[in-house]
Amino acid sequence: MSSTRTRRTRAVAMAAITGALALSACSSGGGFNTPAATQAPAGGPVALKMLIASSGDAETNALKAATAAWGKKTGNSVEVTAADNMDQQLGQAFAGGAPPDVFYGADTRIGDFAKAGNLYAYGDQVANEKFLPSLVQTFTYNGKLQCAPKDYSTLALEINTDLWTKAGLTDADIPKDWAALETVATKLTQGTVTGLVIGNDINRGGAFMKQAGGWVISADGKTMTADTPQNLAGLQEIKKMMDAGALKFNTDTTPAAGWGGEAFGKGIAAMTIEGNWIKGGMQKDYPNLKYKVVELPTGPAGKGTLSFSNCWAIAAKSQHQAASVDLVKFLTSTDQQLAFTKAFGPMPSTEDGIAKFKTDYPADAPFAAGGDYGQGAVNAPGMDPVMKAFNSKMATLSKGGDPKAMLADLQKNGTAALAG
Which of these CATH numbers, 3.40.190.10, 1.10.10.60, 3.40.50.300, 3.30.420.10, describes 9-153+308-375? Predict the structure, then answer.
C-alpha cells in the first residue's frame, strides 16, 4: 500500500498532468510510450500495463502474483511496473499519448487528473462493491466516482508501553480527549523523552483541525473553509502542547527524526500519531519495541482522524478499458484485498473487507475504526502547490509561527486556486 503521507511523501504523490508536464516529457523513462500498434488485436487476449508507486518488494510481488492469477483466469496478461519516479513516469506516459491502462491514482491528484481528461470514470461499474463512503467521497469529482478505492490507512495514537508504565500510567489513563492527552504527554516528558512527537505538516496536525470541527475545504471540494475558528483551535492546541514542552515535531527532536515513527522507535517519543504503516517500520527497525495502538483522542467537535488512500485509476486513452475494469473488480474483491493485507499491510476498502479485517486483526481495530469518520485528502484541482506552501508554514509553529496568519493565507491562496 502506498498511502503513507510524510514518511513516503504521500505515496510518491503524483504531479498534475498539465501542459507543463507535457513540455517536460520529451525524454523516455516511463516504459509506457509504446505505440498503439503493439496492442493485442481486437477479440484476442489483451496485454495490460500497470504502473504502481510501491512501498517495496512485498507490495510489488503481491501485485504481480494477483495480476498473474487474474491473467490465468481470463487469458489476459498484466505487466506490472514499480515506478522509480511516479510523477515523471506517469507524466511522460500521458504526454506521449500511451499511458498505462491501470495505475495508482493518488488521493490528492484525482481532481487534477479528472479535470485534465486523463481518467476513465468507471465508478458506476463498481457501485455494487460497497466501498467505504469516506473513500468514495475522496475519489469523487464533479459528482462522479472516478475510480475504485484501492485500500486505505488512518491515523491513530501509538503508545510506548514501557515508558507509559514507567511514568505511573495505566490503561485508565489512555487519553480520550485533548485535556487527557495534555496530561499524559506532560507526565511522559522526562529527560530526553518527549511525550508526543508528530510530523510537521497537515498530514498529522490536520487531525487536530478535524477534531475541532474544521477542515480545509468543503465536502464538495468547491469552497475553501480554512480560515475558521475551528481550524484555528486545532492548530492552537498543537502550539499549546508545544509551549508546554509536551509535544514536538519530528524535525525538532534531538536528534531530529525522519518521521514520527523513527522518534517513537528510538525512544525519544513516548507517543506518536501515525498510520498502520508504522507496524512494518517497527517490525523492521525496532523489533523489540513494546507499544499499543488506540484511537485518537476526541476534540471539541468529537472524533477526528485523517484517511490516506490510492485508487485503481484507468486511463481515458486505454484501449482495454473493459478488461481493466474486470481486473479492478478482481483486485478489490474481499479475498484479494485480505491477501494484500497479509502480504504488505493495507486495510481493505470495502465494507465486507474491513469487517473481516477487524476480525482477523483485532490489534488494528483503532486504525480500522477511523474508516468510519476519517477525513480524506484535499483532492480539488490546483490545490497541491497550495497545500505544500501551507505545510511549509505549519512547520514553523514550533518557531513562533502564527497559526491565524497561516490559515488566512491558506484561505486566500486556496480560493485563488479553485477559481483558476
Answer: 3.40.190.10
